[in-house]
Amino acid sequence: MNPISLLKTIETMSHEEVFNYAFYHLNGTQIRNIINYYDNEFSTFLQYDENLQSLNDNIKDKMQIFRDRLY
To answer: pLDDT tens digits for 47-56?
Structure first.
């Protein structure tokens, strides 16, 4: 799954589902790729597409689950 599709999927998931996904279905490399994409690429999209701002607001705290999983 490409990162933008994954981020949109994460947006529809509950925090518990995100936790389970991060801890039981992904390895460290996959999680790093998601975080890197979110931090580097996704923020660029936000500059050009206001529709993605609401998506960002919905997943910002869910991304912390992925960060916690790595560290």
So the answer is: 666 766 676 7
